[in-house]
Design goal:
4-stranded mixed sheet, alpha+beta, Phosphoribosyl-aminoimidazole Synthetase, Chain A, domain 2, single chain, about 25% strand, 2 domains, 7-stranded mixed sheet, 13 strands
Amino acid sequence: MISESAILNCFQHLVDLNKDDIVIVGSGDDAAVIKSQEKDLVHSVDISKINSHFPEDSMPQDIAYRSIAVALSDLAAMGAFPAFISIGLTSNITDLKWYKQFTRGVEEILNEYQLKLIGGDITNGEISVCVNVFGYAYEKNILRSTAKVGDLIYITGPLGEGRKGLEDWKNNQQTKYIKKFFKPKVDFDKSKYISKYANSCIDISDGLMKDLSRICKSSEVGAEIIYENIPITNDIDDLSYGDDYKLCYTCSPEFRDNEFISQDFYIGEIKSDTEIILNKGNSSINFKKHGWDSFE
């Protein structure tokens, strides 16, 4: 019979990874204690659930890596770099080997982004992973609510790669896109320079059109998008599918020729009208798909 203590012991070695004096008290007590720094502390939480955010027969290490990566993406969108995480794992798996494989995925991403695991919890039930991420602002906090009329709209990479990766995996096709779904890379390098120039930003987790609409709603503005400028992998549904984890941001036109900004994809402009218009050629597309929703 498997026990909670046996499972927690699988994670214990990860607590000592990338250790420094910022974490005064780590895992092992009732709560972690973190030394305060001069920079703003940024926090986000994300829950990934079986058959909703990852397939039932996903590898444990892939579940771990993906669940943490998608949580980290929220920090990148805020112009912050990651420092430490905690994990709440719900699982009804009774084979200890599954948990050891899960910790391999945790260890991989901890080392990749130089993160510290400061604690967590486990309980019995259908598999889900709740990840709390903490980081510090590079320059300033980039919000959804501060886009300005006349801002240019950019995205940091192509859309639809995660969608294609999941489809290829389901069809047993070994392609480069499978890794894009199970091991999405977080744009922290781009987040660093975006934090200097952007007026607003969001990560594209629920689809470009839905996430851009969140910027527009929070900022009380609209947008005009040029379909031909959007780098898509499959078809127009890439605009609403989600699972991209690229950044969508707005900045002043004065930065159009900036050496960093010019590497990204210009897709449109912020307008004073509060609607979002998607233009293709000389006509507007009536785009009805709004993006990912966990409850739909």
